[in-house]
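Long-time lurker, finally posting.

We've been working with Type 12 methyltransferase (Aquaticitalea lipolytica) and I want a structural starting point before designing mutants. I don't trust myself to interpret raw outputs, so I'm hoping someone here can both generate the structure tokens and explain anything notable. Sequence follows.
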Amino acid sequence: MSDNNHYFETNRATWNTKVKEHSKSDMYNIKAFKEGKSSLMSYELKALSDVKDKSLLHLQCHFGQDTLSWSRLGAKCVGVDLSDEGIKLAQQLNKELKLDAEFVCCNVLETSKYVNNTFDIVFTSYGVIGWLPDLKPWGKMIAERLKKGGTFYMAEFHPIVWMFDYREGKSIMRYGYMQDEVIYEEYEGTYANQDAKMTSKEYGWNHGLSEVINALTEAGLHIDYLNEYDECPYNVLPDLEQTKSGMYATKDKLYPLIFEIKATKF
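Top reply, 14 upvotes:
Generated this for you. Predicted structure of Type 12 methyltransferase:
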């Protein structure tokens, strides 16, 4: 962990700034959220159709909109995130909306140091594992925090998506699907507002599907299913077109944009 501290601290600083920009963006639309609109997407709502009275741990929760959306559906939620500004805003929203979620600021890989409970569900989604240099401790932590018979669910951008550099407003294949080396990117703005007056400085890592699957199975989880989709809930990549379902896809649909995994701890 210590070898990666510089990467994590750089990312934390960027995410602290992103929280300020995202909280006033159209994409996150806090006004509609406060008025009752759920931030959850169809993939996760279908996979976790009944969370009422279940305990749920949300990994890398940003400023808590999804955590609080699960809370509105009756789950007893704990959200964790690296960004102290994100956790601070999540706690404010929780209080304002009179919900009962808890939020913890920590590196997701160190969750077990800060969260002792075990959960019926561990959940994570969209742009999460790319911030982690090694998925084995991630898988181990998930298994530690799940109750026996508990469910892990993730919806995430497909590894092929991260082979491209999008900084020039177009998709340029630049990074390896199985690349071990850290990737550094610096650009103006953020995915929720490209015109935001901020500089994003980010360190990330690419992880192929086999690495994701192996990290979970080696930790003792059974994979219930792995699905891949060529439609994405977010219009955050260049040249996506809206589909009849209201999602977004590349014009030619040559590769998947999203994958989902559901797993059980036996």
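Before you design anything, note these points.
The chain has one domain: 2-265.
The chain has a mean pLDDT of 96.
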